[in-house]
């Protein structure tokens, strides 16, 4: 296990290094790069060049990258171009808010979808299974922003049961009850999309395991069905589910960006949209790198959970996890 963890951490650091290079290169080569921010009608080209020199934007891109990555290793994410504000002061509060929203949606989706998928695998094509299929079709087909607007129209404007947007009601910052009310609608939007896939994956994975010979043997020995399902089948069915949970992190972050914009949630996704429109590239690079860290950590945790769920998985061998 120790060897595996060391190897995976080194691989993760390499991935993050490559992500930083690609992100830095793409952003600086995009049309309207950082220097173009200063070349407005009210600012001469010469003044723009002087400003670029002051910020180090006139240097070769590899020199700029080394300076940026060096500051990043020291905890300095840089400053915004327009207001010269520290990126960390802008970004870290939004990261916390996004983690709150993502965690609530992810946990809620798993608590509903996995038990529901397991139940549907034991009662194929029943009412519950058909209902789950209908919800899955709706979840896959319905645009996130449209579903969010519909919920706002119904529950916030017409019924006046829930807040329309934002994270807190003005004057109630830090109130957990108020936070919960504001979470209901955006979490519902994010949950629907994941519910659609998680129920299907859980059901399919369980059905595949239930057809195995060792399940037939356990039933032939007179073992209770509940014990067969939860003691033998579920443990083997969890590995594909864990894989999907780890791989869905990028989708969750992307979905949060749209949902945060619709509900005016002060998170990292909404900040990314705002900074992209403002062409604040230092903030965009920091957000991209943090997203990569979240994805890498999610996959690392998924690999570790393989061994926890199924002891037959050996995590110390070359090539990663193997059964």
Automatic annotation (TrEMBL):
Q: Transmembrane residues, as ranges?
A: 99-119, 131-159, 179-199, 237-263, 283-309
Quote a single Gene Ontology cellular component term.
plasma membrane
- Which stretches make up the ABC transmembrane type-1 domain? 95-302
User: Which classification does the entry list for the species?
Assistant: Bacteria, Bacillati, Bacillota, Bacilli, Bacillales
**InterPro entries, per this entry?**
BPD_transp_1_N, MetI-like, MetI-like_sf
The organism is Paenibacillus dendritiformis C454
Q: What is this protein called?
A: Binding-protein-dependent transporters inner membrane component
Q: Which UniProt keywords apply?
A: Cell membrane, Membrane, Transmembrane, Transmembrane helix, Transport
Provide the membrane topology annotation: Multi-pass membrane protein
Q: Does the keyword Membrane apply?
A: yes
Please give a single GO biological process term from the UniProt record. transmembrane transport
Where would you say this protein principally sits, based on its record? membrane
The entry's family comment says: Belongs to the binding-protein-dependent transport system permease family.
Question: Subcellular localization, per the record?
Answer: Cell membrane
């Amino acid at each position: 296990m120790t060897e595996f963890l060391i190897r995976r951490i080194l691989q993760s650091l390499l991935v993050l290094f490559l992500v930083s290079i690609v992100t830095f290169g793409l952003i600086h080569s995009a049309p309207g790069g950082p220097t173009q921010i200063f070349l407005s009608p009210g600012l001469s080209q010469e003044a723009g060049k002087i400003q670029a020199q002051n910020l180090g934007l006139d240097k070769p891109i590899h020199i700029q990258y080394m300076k940026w990555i060096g500051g990043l290793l020291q905890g300095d994410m840089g400053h915004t171009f327009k207001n010269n504000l520290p990126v960390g002061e802008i970004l870290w509060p939004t990261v916390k808010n996004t983690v709150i929203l993502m965690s609530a949606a992810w946990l809620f989706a798993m608590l509903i979808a996995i038990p529901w998928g397991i139940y549907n695998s034991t009662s194929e094509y029943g009412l519950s299974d058909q209902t789950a299929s209908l919800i899955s079709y709706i979840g896959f087909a319905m645009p996130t922003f449209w579903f969010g607007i519909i919920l706002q129209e119904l529950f916030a404007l017409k019924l006046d049961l829930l807040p329309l947007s934002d994270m807190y009601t003005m004057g109630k910052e830090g109130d957990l009850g108020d936070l919960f009310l504001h979470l209901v609608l955006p979490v519902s939007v994010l949950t629907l999309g994941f519910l659609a896939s998680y129920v299907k994956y859980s059901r399919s994975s369980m059905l595949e395991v239930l057809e195995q010979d060792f399940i037939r043997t356990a039933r032939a020995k007179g073992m209770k069905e509940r014990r067969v399902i939860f003691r033998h089948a579920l443990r083997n069915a969890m590995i594909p589910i864990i894989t999907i949970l780890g791989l869905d992190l990028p989708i969750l972050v992307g979905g949060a960006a749209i949902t945060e914009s619709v509900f005016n949630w002060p998170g990292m996704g909404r900040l990314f949209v705002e900074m992209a429109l403002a062409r604040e590239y230092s903030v965009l690079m920091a957000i991209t790198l943090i997203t990569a860290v979240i994805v890498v950590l999610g996959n690392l945790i998924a690999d570790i959970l393989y061994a926890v769920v199924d002891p037959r998985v050996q995590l110390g061998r070359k090539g990663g996890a193997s059964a």
